[in-house]
Amino acid sequence: MIAAIKPTGANTRGLLAYLYGPGDHDEHLDPHIVAGFAMLGMPDPGRDENATLTELARHLDAPVRLRNGEFGKPVADHVWHCPVRAAPEDRYLSDAEWGEIAQRIVQAAGIAPAGDDLGCRWIAVRHADDHIHILATTVREDGRRPKLHGSGVRVGDACREIEKEYGLRQLKKGDGTGSRRPTQAEMHKAERLGWQQPSPEWLQDRIRAAIPHVTNAEEFIAYLQASGVEVQVRRGPSGDLLGYAAGRPGDVNETGEQIYHPGSKISPDLSLPKIKARLKSSRPEEHPTARRIHPSSPWHQAADALDTLHTDLADDAHAQARITALGELLEATAQSAPAHLQAELHAASKAFARAQRSQIRAEDRAAHALRSAARDTVHTATGPDGSALAALAAALVWATIVAARWHEAKNHAHQADSARQAVQHLQTAADRALAPTLAELTARPPRNQARRVLASDVRAAVPDHAERILTDPAWPALATVLADAEALGHQPHQLLKEAAAQRELTTARQPARVLITRIQHTGRNPAPNRRAEAARRRSTLAGSIRVRQTHDGQLPPTATTPTEQQRRQRR
Question: How many CB atoms lie within 10 A of CB 411?
């Protein structure tokens, strides 16, 4: 059950005309009062043909007129309006039940507190099976104004109790971190103009898309403007950027003026101070394009940054920061991925937005590695790299599962749901990303004898999951990956143990696929030659000693020639 308190108004009769009228789409059927502050003698134009809207409005406005007469100054915006709607799958509620619900809503809001005979005047009008409208005038019978601060939270809590008691669909309690829902006017406007999204949603998508591309607030504003967003900025006397509001081109008011939405109203985490804090934590040490000379692809670097996410969530502030940055990496990956993956990745990024914020204040500096990975991904990921992208997609799936579990442990119900929805989209994208690699690996399986040896390695390295792995349709491809890694000098048994340790396999749908992406990622380079490395260290040490002998004429007091036993230990 959702109770949506609307902005206050000043025209009681005008709102009554809407409630008793046909509606915007002739959806208002049989409007009538189901509850009110005093039902005896209440004029109801829906049941009494002699009652008029003007009479009902004067009845509700009586305390307002008295106060205005006493103070000589009209009360501004005295009309309180709250539609209350049941879920589509909920059972039919009778007029009496809706009346009881309305009574509890106005008590919780502070319009008419329980046991207070001097509360505000109000009515509840029903004109459809699934909802009512509560109208109140916010001057009490004693002339005082009601205390409505925090009424939205109290009404939400009352709705959660009503759902339990009436056997209705139960929603999760709000925590103050949700984005503002588009108003009906905004939704109708989008429909009228042929827009797929109302303006606040459209703006939120573009603001989130901008964050991985920029490193400071001025770049952020410039990027929004370059991407077609109308931006209005607020600056201090020194010229420093203090705030911003964003507008959608073509979204104008009745007088043709551009409509702007402050960033904090679009979403709580998109205020300028919060964006500045996130950008400050991702300052690059070098220009992102300079990283193109690195041998590892951006996909590999991003997967590397995710490797330790599940072990770095002990500190709540650090954990929230990394989960917020994970959302930025999701957005960056969606922008840079091949076309056939973008729809699912964009859907995952959009679903994950609520998980990026909670009531826990994030320590943004803890997420430098993930934010650097997001920035590198949007700047330098220039083409598809099948196995690397598949590894990143799989790493994103696991990281998002970890984020969902963390939110669950903290009782962040909305955030956990958001993360779980993102996981579903990411799993689809990961399957698609891995499909070409699976086909190529399956087409060149190792010989039977080699596969039997590799199967023994699986049983020894991950005995609890061995049978699931060996019966997984992707086992032949995993065997090929292990054989390839062995040819590079790796030990299959060790690779399997390390890959299994990075993610538990109990909840994995297809454990062989999980191991394929992990092993391809960690085993992509030749195994280090330990003897060669030991020889290099001995050579470096000997050269250092010779340099110091040349300079001083003798061995330094703290330097000694390594003994044979020390050489053997190094080997």
Answer: 11
